[in-house]
Amino acid sequence: MNEKNTITAFHCWRKNGELKVRPKPLKWHIPKRLRGLIKQGDIVLVESLGRKKPVLVIDVSREELEETGRHYKWVVRIVDQVDQVDQ
Q1: In angstroms, what is the C-alpha Rg of the chain?
Q2: Residue 31, Cβ neighbours under 10 Å: how many?
Q3: What is the pLDDT of residue 21?
Q4: What is the pTM of this model?
Q5: Among candidates 26, 25, 32, which has minimal Cα distance to 5?
């Protein structure tokens, strides 16, 4: 099983109707119930500094957490998904 379990994302927020992005990539763990549903370009809610904040997903990957020894906070839920475009 090669499920993608980690996202790399930027913090984002709305200011004067525009989407602002903080260009520092950070990583979060995807819980099993959301695996396979999150893709690049989605906005998801994550745990950050004791609060839930939106982030813009730039990459979804597989990381062996046992091998790397890293611990990431969790993705809480999907806020907005990009539209599927068939080409």
Answers
A1: 13
A2: 12
A3: 92
A4: 0.86
A5: 32
